[in-house]
Amino acid sequence: MLMTRTNVLTEYLNQYYDEWDPLDFYRYIFPEGELEKSGERVTGKYNAIAVEVLGKKQAKRYTVTDDLSWIRELQGSENFCLMSPISYAGKTRKSEYARFLYAMAFDLDSIVCLEDGTPQGLIDLFYQIEGPAQRLPMPTFVASSGTGLHLYYVFEKPIPLFKNIVDQMKEYKREMTRMLWHGYITTLEDNVQQESVFQGFRIVGTITKTGSRVRVFETGKRVTMDYMNSFVREEFQVRHFAYKSDLPLAQAKEKYPEWYQKRIIDKKPKASWTTKRDLYDWWKRRITFEAREGHRYYCLMTLAIYAKKAGIEYEELERDAFELMPEFEKLTRNEYNHFDEEDVIKALEAYNDVYITYPINSISQLTDIPIQKNKRNGRKQDEHLRRARAVQAIDYPDGEWRNKKGRLSKEHLVKVYLKEHPEESVTDISKALHISRTTVYKYME
C-alpha cells in the first residue's frame, strides 16, 4: 500500500539523517531579514508565496513575509499546500515577478521498493551521491513527500532570476532531472516528469496524498552553482550568473543596459507569441479523449501553455483542469501513480512561466499525442506564400480579397495564414507576410 512505501522512505531517512522542524527548514532557506516584513515595502526586499488548494478545487494564495507566519498557519491545513523556494515582487507567482532563487528543488516519484519493503531506490540514490563515482550532487535536504521525495539544494547565496539565468537554469534542471530519474531509483524512468524552475512543492509539515505529513531531513550542506555545475556536461552548465547583491538593479543596469532601459525605464512588457482560442479548445478536446497514464501531467501543462498564449484567464484554465482531473484519475493503473490536486496545480504552473517553451515535436513526445505539423512540402516560406496567393486568386477570381486600391488585404492574409499556421508567433507571421507586428495583432483579434 502507499502508506507502507511512504513509511519506508521516511523511516530510512529518519534512521540516518536529522529531521528538521518545518519552520526551521524554511528559516534556513529564507534567513531572517531576507524577506520583507509584514506591512512594509522596502526596495530590494521581496516575499515568498504559498498556495493552498481548497475543498472546492480552488486555489488560495498567501504572501509569506519574514515572520513566516503563514507557514505556521498552513501546518494544520487538511488541504494540499505548496510553495517554491523563490522570492517574488508582489503577490503573484508569475515568473516575470520572480526575483531570487534560494534553492533548486527536484521531485522524485515512485521510488523503487523491494517486496520486503527495502527502499532500494533511496539506497541507490545515496550510493550514486556518495559512492565511488559520485555521479549526483548531495542535496541539502530530502523531504519525504507522500509517494516520493523532494530534493532541495539550498544555495549559499540566492541567485537573481534574470531571463538569461532562467534560460540556463531551465536547461540545467532538465538534464539533472533526467539523471535523477534513473531506473535504479524510480520505477518511472520512462516517464520522467520535467518541471519548471519555478515549480512549487508540498510545504513541509502539510498533508500528503497518503494522509501523513511531509517530513524533511538534513542530508548535506549549502551548495554553490559551481558545485552543481560539476555534475553535468558543459553544455548544461549555468555559467553566466551573479549571486544576489545589495544593488541588483544597479548591477543589471550595468550588465544588461538594453534590458534595463526597456523593462525598468520604459516599463515595456515582455514579448510573447500569441495564438487564438481555437488552439486551446482543440487541445482540451484531444486530451479529454487521448490522455494516457504517464503523460497526464504534460497534457495539462500544454493546456496551460496554450491558455496563456490565447489570453484565457487562469480561473477558466483552473476550472477546466479540475474538471478533467477525475477523468484523468480513471486512467490510473499503477497504485503509486494516482492523479490528484497536486498534479493539477503543478501542471498549471506553466501558465505563470513566461520562459517555458516546448516545440511541437517535444509536446507530441511528452504527451504521447501525435500533432500534425502544417507542412509546406519542403518549400521555403516565401515560396509557400506566393503559391498561397496564387490559390487565392483562383478561389477569388473577382478579387474580393483585395481592397479598392488593388493591394492585398492584410486582414485576409493574416487570417488565412493563422488558419494554416496557428502555432506560429506574431513575429514569424510578421516576417512571412512582410507586415508590421501591430497589424498582425490588429487582425488576430
Task: Report on this structure.
This protein has 445 residues and is an alpha+beta fold. 41% of the residues lie in helices and 13% in strands. The chain has helices at 2-16, 22-29, 69-74, 120-130, 163-180, 225-229, 248-255, 257-265, 277-290, 296-309, 314-329, 341-347, 360-367, 381-395, 410-420, 426-433, 437-444; strands spanning 18-20, 48-53, 59-64, 80-83, 86-88, 98-109, 141-144, 148-160, 201-202, 215-218. A 6-stranded antiparallel sheet has the order 1-10-7-8-6-5. A 4-stranded antiparallel sheet has the order 3-2-4-9. A hairpin with a 3-residue loop joins strand 7 (141-144) and strand 8. The longest helix has 18 residues, at 163-180. It starts with a helix and ends with a helix. 33% of the residues are buried. Mean pLDDT is 82; it is low at 401-407.
Give a brief description.
This protein is α+β, with helices and mostly antiparallel strands.
Comma- or semicolon-separated keywords:
445 residues, alpha+beta, 3 domains, 6-stranded antiparallel sheet, 4-stranded antiparallel sheet, 41% helix
Write the layout of secondary structure elements.
Elements: H1 2-16, E1 18-20, H2 22-29, E2 48-53, E3 59-64, H3 69-74, E4 80-83, E5 86-88, E6 98-109, H4 120-130, E7 141-144, E8 148-160, H5 163-180, E9 201-202, E10 215-218, H6 225-229, H7 248-255, H8 257-265, H9 277-290, H10 296-309, H11 314-329, H12 341-347, H13 360-367, H14 381-395, H15 410-420, H16 426-433, H17 437-444
Antiparallel strand pairs: 1-10, 2-3, 2-4, 4-9, 5-6, 6-8, 7-8, 7-10
Helix pairs in contact: 7-8, 9-10, 10-11, 10-12, 15-17, 16-17
